Amino acid sequence: MTRADWLLNPGERGNPATRLDRRHPDGEAWSRGNHVRPLVHGAVYFAELLEAVRALNRGDLLLFTDWRGDPDERLAGPGTEIGAVLSGAAERGVVVKGLLWRSHLDSLHFSEEENRHLGEEIGRGGGECLLDMRVRPGGSHHQKLVVLRHRDRPELDVAYVGGIDLCHNRNDDAEHRGDRQSMPLAPAYGPHPPWHDVQLALRGPVVGDVEAVFRERWEDPAPLSRSPLIRVRERMHSEDISADRLQPQRPDPAPCGTHTVQLLRTYPNRLLGGYPFAPDGERSIARGYTKALRRARALIYLEDQYLWSPRVVACFARALRRHPRLRVIGVVPTVPEEAGRLTRPMNLIGRIKALDELRRAGGDRVAVYGLENRSATPVYVHAKVCVIDDIWASVGSDNINLRSWTHDSELSCVVYDERTDPRRPADPGGLGDGARAFARELRLELMGEHTDAGATDALCDPVSAFDAFVESAAALDAWHGGGCRGPRPPGRLRRYVPPDLAVTQRMLAVPLHRLLVDPDGRPLGMRLRRTF
User: Cβ distance 243 to 134 under 8 Å?
Assistant: First the structure.
């Protein structure tokens, strides 16, 4: 078994127009010699990001893309608002460039005004932040990355990629009491929704790859929006509508670790002229999952905001049917983020159908859970993590749903550690010598938190890990069922029980087949000419 058995080769990416793979002198579709650290929880990521940005000097480079940015979101207490931190870097002479999704109207609960305000604050400091609507109708720019390059200290270069936006709700920690700067979700989450999320800190040559992803979008000559109404608004607000030229990209940082990293992406085949770097779109996230799932034998561990769409989970179901010892653990939000009469049942229908597909394939080898904090408030799971057989580990902006695999812009990092993990599972038919240190340590950290057991070696074995989740959730469910009497059992896991499909469909104001949008949130009829 080699990395080539798990990762996409350049031809398998399906997008010959990108320079992402051509930029590697060896022609490989990944970079080697990196050091990757998972930053579990927004508070951990925000504190590190603040320190790193404050250390930038004149002539250094800060690049970022995001789905939403709230200028007043504090990274680590008063005086650390993200708008002021980025604007302050620009005032010090740091080259600050950003791309934020232009977004739909705020009346639809997106982020148009907040993103514009963050861009204006950065602009006042001397940076440049553009509002980018170069998407398909109904789509979004969902990539979440930050790149920090140092003119005179390349050993400090770092990139951050994952699921954490620079906005409200994200600054939570392992106690899951929620961000004090909160936006409302469904009432079950309370005034400060507890939030679970993951970002990666990347050092080594892969920093150059992440920068290349930003530059491809920044250098796209297409107008930021084709909407006449938005053009008028741009003039009214004197918005920056064209990207200034970037300085040439510096050489990649030197190798510094044992992690091979492959960047996977989704871009749609944009109407009226495609992206110059992806003229027919790119679906390497879908292709990467499909290839890795063909090799799955023991355990697929997922943390996902949605876990929707039978078309997407079909490749997981095929893996379960092929291998009768394969198990799947999923950690998802117990309650959809929105409580609207239309949106909530649509969200639930998408998940119900997906879980039904998985359970038909795997039966009791499929187990799905929600999380709660110690006050019994549900935790909103926003993480996008997948670990397959403790070998292939993916963290990014993409969810397990159709729009993340076909329609929105997404960015994910697959990490393959050249180091094997010396610990053997108890089951000789389990993961054996193939387990890789990064993938296993990531899974153990997450599972250890959810069970309150810590990253114990007892969770190395896939069967034992699966059973530990079953037992932890059963104990907490029984405690709740008994009226919460006596000491609360350890752990945060609750068994996820989806509502009845027929009942959920009756919640809709109109029949599902008459809706203008599907459960993945895209207008009907917006199916792509080619998916994955």
Answer: no
